[in-house]
Amino acid sequence: MKPSQILNALALLTLSAGFSTPILSANTAEAVNPLLIRAKVPSAQVVTQQGENRDLRDLLKGKSSVVIFYRGGWCPYCNTQLSGLASIENELKEKGYQIVAISSDKPDSLNATDAKHNLGYQLISDSEYNAMNAFGIGYDNQKRGRLPVPSIFLVTPELEVSFQYVNPNYRYRISADLLLAAADSKEH
């Protein structure tokens, strides 16, 4: 049995034993195992733009949230997505959502990304890969090390996933219109 098959078997055993989130180490973007709709957001330590260590659950609890995992400020596809998200930011906020964008960038890189796009939402560093592993979307990239598959999760105030878009092909991102439609259709 290959190491990846052993990890997947352990993950299935963990899930069947009733634990909420396995920590998987996917070898490719296609092999990730993202949180499913109705799953609870697991605990994961992240770092804010201000350099504070926080549990992601504490940042999301009590608020409807759009949680975006992007590869980093160096990624042109991610920069396009972040700019597009900024264009619907006010509409999402009017619907009661906060926006939290998470990357594996170091905390000091977040401010440069924010300045480039003049964002009004939170950028979070997951340079220790805690959140991406907890959400089941982290994988090992040969060129860049550990990365998240670009993903969007809508999370209820009770920390339950109500929508997810996860595409292993980093070139394809959810459109702003589709994200707004998903936000409209979800209770929060």
Task: Characterise the protein shown here.
- By secondary structure, this protein is an alpha+beta fold.
- It has a single domain, classed as Glutaredoxin, CATH 3.40.30.
- Helices cover 34% and strands 23% of the residues.
- The chain contains six helices and nine strands; from the N terminus they run αββαβαβαβαββββα.
- Strands 2-1-5-4-3-8-9 form a seven-stranded mixed sheet. Strands 6-7 form a two-stranded antiparallel ribbon.
- β4, α4 (107-117) and β5 form a beta-alpha-beta unit.
- The model is unreliable at 1-23 (pLDDT under 50).
> What is the first-to-last residue Cα distance?
44 Å
Number of domains: 1
CATH architecture: 3-Layer(aba) Sandwich
* Low-pLDDT segments, ≥5 res: 1-23
The H-and-E topology, N to C, reads as HEEHEHEHEHEEEEH
CATH superfamily: Glutaredoxin
Tell the overall outline. Answer: globular
Main structural class: alpha+beta
Primary descriptors:
alpha+beta; seven-stranded mixed beta sheet; Glutaredoxin; 188 residues; disordered N terminus; 9 strands
Topology of this protein?
Layout lengths: L2 H14 L28 E4 L4 E3 H5 L3 E6 L6 H19 L2 E7 L3 H11 L4 E4 L4 H5 L3 E4 L3 E4 L2 E5 L5 E6 L9 H10 L3
Parallel strand pairs: 3-4, 4-5
Antiparallel strand pairs: 1-2, 1-5, 3-8, 6-7, 8-9
